[in-house]
């Protein structure tokens, strides 16, 4: 191979909102796999809010940015993988680089005839799995209940809201623009949506959730969580999936959400979520998510940006709410897509 492996590394620890100067594009020889390993040619790299935690760690300076990847096997020294197969490494992926060597145990083979391979990083990948288990196992929605989802047009929130609808719940989304609110109602089938940037969130939640809130699927934390908590019902479940509003804040400056009067005495239950808890059931969720997508019951939107060098700016834009749908960086051509 005559080309080099292009990588985005962390140049310095990030404080506050990331900046382009926090990253550096470097080139190195393409690595070659040892016995039991596979060289993958990257097609898509996933950008997700959890990566912000990696950026603040001084020990990570000089390392390749983490992230899930979907690609094609370029060289295989593993008996279970053949060159040309499409694969995904969505948990602990080798990250922001054009090639990566991984052990076969870390890869999942994709069938492009079932769903587009890009979905393995979104609706049929880590975001979809997070939405599935966090909503159903933590939120435990029941038919007829009201479910509120923050960051409702994002990769996780969009799936969570649609699953809530499949469970016959009244579903209300919170998003950051009129366009995103229209999308979750008109295309994803939410019952209502509130633009937290331009509308009175407290008043609009009271209007769109007249029976109160039974399940809150939280992707953002911060002030939005405060407002929602004031309208929860007795016995409500608050599923904490993410806190993007707080990821850029230094740990010492975070202020606890004022929730004691709502959760004490059993009035409500608040529970965090870690996808690793359900590792043994990932295949169960992935199969059902793919079935829903194939049968039109689960819709999705992707925000694909061409070029590995665009990853830092794209990530910053996501943290500022500028992306619309699952954010992906396309590194090489996708052979499964019609040109």
Description:
The chain is α/β, with parallel strands linked by helices and 339 residues long. The protein folds into 2 domains: 148 residues, Medium-chain alcohol dehydrogenases, catalytic domain (Quinone Oxidoreductase, Chain A, domain 1), CATH 3.90.180.10; 151 residues, Rossmann fold (3-Layer(aba) Sandwich). The chain contains 9 helices and 15 strands. The strands form 3 sheets. Strands 3, 4, 5, 6, 7, 14 and 15 form a 7-stranded mixed β-sheet that branches. Strand 11, helix 6 and strand 12 form a beta-alpha-beta unit. The radius of gyration is 20 Å and the shape is globular.
Name the features.
339 residues, alpha/beta, Quinone Oxidoreductase, Chain A, domain 1, Rossmann fold, 2 domains, seven-stranded mixed beta sheet, six-stranded parallel beta sheet, 26% strand
What is the topology?
Blueprint: E1 5-10, E2 23-28, E3 37-46, H1 52-55, E4 69-76, E5 86-89, E6 99-103, E7 108-110, H2 126-139, E8 146-150, H3 155-166, E9 170-175, H4 178-186, E10 192-195, H5 201-208, E11 213-218, H6 222-229, E12 232-240, H7 260-263, E13 268-272, H8 282-294, E14 302-306, H9 311-319, E15 326-330
Parallel strand pairs: 8-9, 8-11, 9-10, 11-12, 12-13, 14-15
Antiparallel strand pairs: 1-2, 3-4, 3-6, 3-15, 4-5, 5-7
Helix pairs in contact: 2-3, 2-8
């Amino acid at each position: 191979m005559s080309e080099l492996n292009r990588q985005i590394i962390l140049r310095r620890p990030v404080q506050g909102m990331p900046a382009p100067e926090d990253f550096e594009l470097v080139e190195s020889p393409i690595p070659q796999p040892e016995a039991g390993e596979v060289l993958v040619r990257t097609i898509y790299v996933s950008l997700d809010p959890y990566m912000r935690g990696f950026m603040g760690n001084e020990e990570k300076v000089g390392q390749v940015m983490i992230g899930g990847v979907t690609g094609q096997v370029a060289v295989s020294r593993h008996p279970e993988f053949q060159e040309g197969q499409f694969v995904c490494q969505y948990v602990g992926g080798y990250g922001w680089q054009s090639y990566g060597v991984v052990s076969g145990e870390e890869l999942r083979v994709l069938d492009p005839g079932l769903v587009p391979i890009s979905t393995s990083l979104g609706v049929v990948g880590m975001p979809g799995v997070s939405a599935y288990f966090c909503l159903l196992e933590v939120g435990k929605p029941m038919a007829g209940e009201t479910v509120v989802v923050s960051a409702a047009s994002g990769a996780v929130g969009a799936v969570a809201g649609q699953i809530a609808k499949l469970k016959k719940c009244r579903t209300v989304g919170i998003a950051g623009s009129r366009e995103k609110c229209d999308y979750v109602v008109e295309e994803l089938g939410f019952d209502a949506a509130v633009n937290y940037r331009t509308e009175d969130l407290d008043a609009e939640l009271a209007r769109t959730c007249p029976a109160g809130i039974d399940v809150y699927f939280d992707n953002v934390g911060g002030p939005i969580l405060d407002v929602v908590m004031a309208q929860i019902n007795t016995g409500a479940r608050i599923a904490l999936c993410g806190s993007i509003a707080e990821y850029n804040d230094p740990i010492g400056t975070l202020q606890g959400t004022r929730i004691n009067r709502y959760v004490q005495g059993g009035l409500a239950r608040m529970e965090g979520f870690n996808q690793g808890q359900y590792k043994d059931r990932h295949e169960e969720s992935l199969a059902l998510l793919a079935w829903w997508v194939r049968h039109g019951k689960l819709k999705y939107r992707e925000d694909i940006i061409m070029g590995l060098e665009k990853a830092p700016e794209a990530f910053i834009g996501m943290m500022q709410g500028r992306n619309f749908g699952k954010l992906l960086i396309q590194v090489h051509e996708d052979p499964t897509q019609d040109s």
